Amino acid sequence: MIDIKCGKCTICCGVECFNPVLFPFEEKRFKKYSIKIKTPFQDIFILKRKKDGQCIFQNKGNTGCRIYKKRPVDCRLFPICLKFDKKGRYKLIMDKDVCPIVEKGKSGKKKMEEYLKKHKIPELYGKAYYYYIHND
Ligand code: SF4
Ligand code: SF4
């Protein structure tokens, strides 16, 4: 399982930031905690947020992830972000503005490429992800 060594600052779990999209094989596991977004391709599921805008899995004081060891792949990738174009092709971009462990994250890029290929992520949901990001 891909897992970049995170600094656990929780910045990316907060308001107005990263909203984790569930990969197709995670949808069932997080069903109770996600929202369905309809797209012309396939439905996309994103994690719910609490009333204060923080991720539903942030602990009570918003100081950490309650499911850290089992968090979704999209969280494990950060600071690597997956950006799709309308044909479902992707680029891996480092989020330098938010995450303090950008340098560590760079080493995860190769592993990430292999992971995407193995699980056919672009084929499975690239176009739907693009649609969701650009029509939100
Ligand atoms: S911003 Fe980076 S270091 Fe902070 S919780 Fe997110 S991934 Fe971890
Ligand atoms: S699941 Fe955990 S790591 Fe992912 S956004 Fe929510 S609190 Fe952060």
Q: Outline the low-pLDDT stretches.
A: none
Report the average pLDDT across residues.
Answer: 88
- Trace the largest sheet across and list its strands: 1-2
| Structural Rg | 14 Å
Strand content bin: 5-15%
Summarize the main sheet.
Answer: 2 strands, antiparallel
Q: Shape, please? A: globular
Structural class: alpha+beta
Molecular structure report:
There is one protein chain. The protein is of the alpha+beta class and 136 residues long. It has one domain. It is built from four helices and four strands. It has a two-stranded antiparallel ribbon. Strands 3-4 form a two-stranded antiparallel ribbon. The radius of gyration is 14 Å and the shape is globular. The mean pLDDT is 88. The structure holds iron/sulfur cluster (2 copies). One iron/sulfur cluster binds next to loops.
Brief characterization of the structure:
By secondary structure, the chain is of the alpha+beta class. Helix content is 26%, strand content 13%. Strand 1 and strand 2 (44-47) form a beta hairpin.
